[in-house]
Amino acid sequence: MTESNTDIEISRRRLLGTVGAAGATGLALGATGGALVQSAIAATPSGGTGSLSAVGAARVAFHGERQAGITTPLQAKGHVLAFDLAPGAGRKEAAALMRRWSETARRLMAGETAATADTGIALDAGPCSLTVTFGFGHSFFERTGLTARRPAALDPLPDFSSDRLDPQRSNGDLWVQIGADDGLVAFHALRAIQKDAGDAARVRWQMDGFNRSPGATASPMTSRNLMGQVDGTNNPKPSEADFEKRIFVPAAGPGPAEHAWMGGGSYAVVRRIRMLLDEWDKQSLAQQEQVIGRNKATGAPLTGGSETTALDLDKIGPDGKAVIPANAHARISAPAQNGGAAMLRRPFSFHDGTAEDGAPDAGLLFICWQADPLRGFVPVQRKLDRGDALSAFIRHESSGLYAVPPGPRDGEYVGQRLLEG
User: Fold this and answer.
1) Is the residue at 114 inside a domain?
2) Predicted local confidence at residue 255, as pLDDT
3) In this structure, how many other beta carbons lie within 10 angstroms of the beta carbon of residue 362?
4) Contact 388, 253 (CB under 8 A)
5) Nearest Cα to 29, choosing from 278, 284, 213, 296?
6) Most buried residue, 91, 149, 295, 367, by most Cβ within 10 Å?
């Protein structure tokens, strides 16, 4: 389908109202708040019987300074997956694959059909805020003979005592994140990306997630995670002076010239975090609020105010104890408690049926973005690992770290500056 000449801009307020899900200021739980809108517009399909709704017509640009899917408002449906290059495939095959994937992403994000063998799954819909984001894992650089161009920030994450990681659902040469506000549009993109891989790469793992649908609440509000917590309050915001510095790699230095291809990019940490919901639901409301450090109904700190009120970590209650407990998730993960360390959390919730123990296999596909994971994710997770009250109710089951290069210029494919530089 093509755009009409009556394209109109979707309001920033409506788009930001869709931002939802997980992370009441913390690492284990997080969502994007105050996200940047990346060229979202409303379009009318030519030859149709009427205009698409605002949700269906919203379009995110493929080309630009940043890849889509980082500061884009959270979408209702997501697929996150990793690929390994096929045996014998190297730099040449990887470049051809990224060229195919980039062209497919560009077309689908514009509301067009795939270039070859389109499945027709999404023919009735608009772009629905579709984004497709690509990254490279640590092992990608050995496979392509590019180890000299692998940044130090991509070194494997340290082990954490609370990890229960499945290696088959962790890491991978290539990483893809797909998001859309319609499930069929997201699945259409997933199928196209998988088909494009051809003989060059095979799926290592795939995880599927969801968030609250746009317009599901009477007015824009922070969403809730599967524990019922208002989630995503304390994310870094683009209006903050140091937002770019925290989230994106500097365009020029520091570091050797061979790492310059990452200038303007970001690093994604991806963790499958299962929530032990049956155990959580056994806790009283007061106990749950003590674990998090926030009011469950409003998201406000236990020290008072509204959802956006700063935590008063020094406030003492009538019993002589800190109102926000020393092991509360909100306290331990607060940037003020971690030397200012912060990351942009942009997750999806998941529910994959019933686990072997009979409990819901549900939780958070935690995805966070930062300029340097050693200054963002790692120091905060180390503190959470040592004493977060929430740790008793969650289980980290898979993990990955990926270098996500900057957005492609017109005529470029994602990663071209690495693979052809």
Assistant:
1) yes
2) 67
3) 18
4) no
5) 296
6) 367
